[in-house]
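Sync notes, pocket subgroup
Present: LS, DG
LS reminded everyone that the earlier model was apo-only. Rerun requested with S-adenosylmethionine included. Inputs:
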Amino acid sequence: MGNLIDSRDLRMKTTHSPDFSPVHVPHGPLTEYYQTEQDRQAFLKKIFDDTAPDYDRIERMMALNTGPWYRRGALARAGLKHGMKVLDVGVGTGLVAAQACILTGDPALVTGVDPSSGMMAASKLPEGMTLVEGRAESLPFPDNHFDFLSMGYALRHIGDLSKAFAEFERVLKPGGRLCVLEITQAESAPGRWLLKTYMRGVIPLLTRFISRQKMSETIWRYYWDSIEACVPPEQVMATMRAAGLKQVERQASLGVCSEYHAVKAEK
Ligand SMILES: C[S@@+](CC[C@H](N)C(=O)[O-])C[C@H]1O[C@@H](n2cnc3c(N)ncnc32)[C@H](O)[C@@H]1O
């Protein structure tokens, strides 16, 4: 495995990870919430639909208001430039897509896709952007269509990562770039304890007081439980490579904010 530290900003970069095989599911069933894969999809759709009006407020609290700045920086680091045609998968309320609109300079160049109509209905996006109902595993777009594909914090919710990454490769143009953002487990024991206390204890507790929707506390508990159960970053990268994506790498800020980058091969 190649681990490099970028001395400018102390982001850890992982460039190569042998010995890991591709995966389909990002984690096994979390039976406190649902039993089967079909139940999981229905559980996720309902909980995202029901809690959508709370999402932006709670995300702001959890990320201490750094969300827009971090998402815009991550897209720029992955190579998003003015004039590019972008697909944002798992667009939700549009927190990544809004930053993509700024960087491309034209909301008409940005399309968002998500299975939760409730999340998309709660979005406050610039006029001109397109929102489409759909899943990462079966994208409703033609081959070779986008210059850039982003996905923020939806990786753990996908039913089949191999299918999703194959879809990302299919809809990207040759040379097109991928940026996937996700929270991952800290490597050190104190880091893991700190993150778990914050995300499994503090955030759901605060959510109980500030949310307007009954299920909001549950979704933020689930948020952590799915992070804890998720396959390691090396396996995510192995799955991207198996889908044909090139130059796959991961940068991790604070050891837990993962940015996966990849490129579709030029023909
Ligand atoms: C935590 S929200 C992230 C929203 C936004 N990208 C952000 O950065 O805040 C996760 C989103 O992934 C969506 N999602 C769940 N399953 C999905 C799937 N199979 N394909 C695409 N999106 C999915 C959910 O509906 C939800 O809107």
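DG: Confidence is low (pLDDT under 50) at residues 1-10.
LS: The chain is about 40% helix and 20% strand.
Action: DG to write up.
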